Amino acid sequence: MTLREFIPKEHGAWAMWIVPMLSGAIATRFSGWFFDFFLAFALLYVVHHPIVRIVKRKKPPDRNEFRQVAGLALPAFLMGLAPVILAGRLWLIVFGAIEILLFTVSVNNFLDREQRSFINELEIVVALTLTAPAAYYVVSGELNSIAAELFLMNFLFFGSSVFYVKMRIEFLKNKGKWEGEAKKALAMTVGYHVFLVAILISAAVLNLFSPWLLVGFIPVLVQVIGGTFSAKTKMSFSRLGVALVLESVVFLGVLGIFFR
Description:
Elements: H1 3-6, H2 11-26, H3 32-57, H4 63-86, H5 92-111, H6 118-129, H7 131-140, H8 145-173, H9 181-205, H10 218-229, H11 237-258
Helix pairs in contact: 2-6, 2-7, 2-8, 2-11, 3-4, 3-5, 3-7, 5-6, 6-8, 7-8, 8-9, 8-10
C-alpha cells in the first residue's frame, strides 16, 4: 500500500475535523497538549482509509499492510493516551470510545454499501466535529457550556453540507425536477436551515454568544439558497469540497474573532 493510498482525497472531510479542532483551541488557547492531540487524530484519520479498504476487500492484511497501519495507529494511540495519563484528561477515554463506536458503524456501512447514506454522512459529521469539545477539553481540562457550544456550532455548520449535497444529488437524479425524493430532500434541507437560523438567533438573543457569529454561517446559507434555485443538472464534488474548505475558513475566522 503506497503513501498516496493513505491520504484521504475528500477536501471537505479534512475541513470537518481540522476546523472544529482549531476552534476548540481558539476558544481557550494553543498548548503542547493541543498539538499532541491534533497529530494523534490526524494519524487516526489518515489510517481510517486503508483500514476501510482492507475490510471491504474481506481479506486479512498482508505483513506490509499490517506494518503500515500499525505504524500510524500505534503512535496515534500512545499520543492520545498521553494527556489521559500525564494530564488527567480522563474524559478523553469517553471521547475515544464514542469515536471507536462511530468508526465501527462507518466501516460496517461501507461493507453494506451504505457509505453515502444520509444517516452515515451525519454520523461522520458527528465523529469529526466532536474534535471541537475534545480539543477544548484537552487544553482547558474542562467540559462546560463552551465545549457544548463549540460542538453545536460546528455540527450545525458542517451538517449543512450533508443536507445540501443530498438535495442536489436527488435533484440531479430526478433530471432537474423537484419531484419525489428530490422534493423531499428539498423540504428537509430548507427545514434544517430554518432550524439552524432559529437556533443561532435564539442563542444570540439569549446572549449565549455574540450575534456576530451568525456571519460565519452566511456562506453556507448563500450556497443553499443558490442551490435551491439553480437549474444546473451537473455537480462537481471536487468543487463542492473546495467550496466547503473556503466556507470553513470564513467560519473559523469569524469564530476566532467573535467567540467570547
